[in-house]
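quick one
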Amino acid sequence: MHTDLCINRKCNDLTLLLGSECSLFCPVLPQAESFLLSKFGEQSHAVTSAIMEAARNDCPAIHEAGVDCYYAIPLEEKTPCNWFGIGQIRSVPLTIARTLISVAWEAMRREATNRELNEALHVAEKEIKYVRNTAGLLRDLNNKHSKRSTQGNYNSRQAIDAARKFLHAESVAAYIEADADIQKTTLTSTVSSASKLTIEDIGFLLKKVGKPAIGESLNLRNLRIRINKVRVKSLDVVPISESETLGYLVAVNAQLQPEYLHARTEILQDIGDFLIADGHTNAVMIESEQLALGILRSMSTAIEARDPYTHGHSERVAQVGVKIARRLGLPESSCQEIYLAGTLHDIGKIGIPDAVLLKPDRLTQEEYSVIQQHPEIGFKIIDGLGKLRFALPGILYHHERFDGKGYPHRLKGEEIPLMARILAVADAYDAMTRSRVYRTAMSREDTCRILREGRNIQWDAKAVDACLAWMSESDIRDEELPFDTLPASVIDSQTSATHQTYQPASI
Ligand SMILES: [Fe+2]
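structure w/ fe (ii) ion:
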């Protein structure tokens, strides 16, 4: 006999309310008549009459037979009603039995309504909890906006990892369509950490199950797809979209319970919206960084244009700095910072008068003091540009000496930031190997000798050794120096800076 949970519960409620057994009964079942006979014997006709009356009027009916009363109570709120609660009330006058049944029926209905409300409340509580958690998650992700890096897809990874945790999913992935306009959003395909599925697997799954349109979602259960040893049993897919679909957010084998489905799908949609917003912000940040960098490089170019003898100096210092940094085993992110700091290291010379900067004769002490201000002028220029602050140590300290006799702060040894120690060697290398108005370029041998003699006196020995190692390994010519590892997001590789420098103090 198949009955739903709600009807069973109503029948149980009646048993409790009436204090005697209330039986479930469906008149259209084949065994209905034999059931009545076995249960009520010769009084089954009274039960049958009660059932017929209850079915006709959609309300409880009661019939008296002998000293007992027999009742039928509809358990479904629909017409025709298929299920009834039936039973016997012993040795009670009909009027009292009628009142008892009426009260029990009302109580049963109230109980059922309360139960439905409680269940709805329970679901609402869960929904609220999920919404609150999602709001917390999004707030947390948004807070990290201000601290984030535009490198890679760190924020996307954080967001989909959080979604995986919320959904108890095996994998969550952002699958970005190959032809999506990512120029404005910087969105990239990303799979959550520790996923056994690759982004190609996610693409395969999407091709197999189809892709939802904007505003829709796919919530598929009982799947039997096997891919890369992963048995895909469920998929939840929402589009990542604004005016057009850019990709899809996919949750694989999320442990969903039916009543939570709505809130959980919303989590995916919220994460998709976050990815779009985050991508836009990244794009704007990259654009503004490129703009700021472009302006600064133009300033450097303008400085170097004042003196043809130092044409391209800053760019070469930047690239030699990277060669040294790599040989010192620094991570690529540090090499990238050294490169940018190198291109900007003499930016402060914009504040030095031509009469001093371009003076072909020997500088007076007063003029030399003026030119020594350029690291601090450069510091003030770049300090106002938050995103380029990483370059400040290189700009401010590239004229410090290892023995403490440099400027502007006479720092000594490893008090001098490594970036500046590296750029000091690169600066000296370029100054020595290029012709000046007052002398021709030094030979490689002389350059090596001077660098070697200046180990731990003017320059950090480790940086000098790394420079010497690079020089010994390379047949150094300008065309071998191009920096080819910077991401396009940070630097415009087409820009060719031309810079000017003056001869380092000790050379
Ligand atoms: Fe300088």
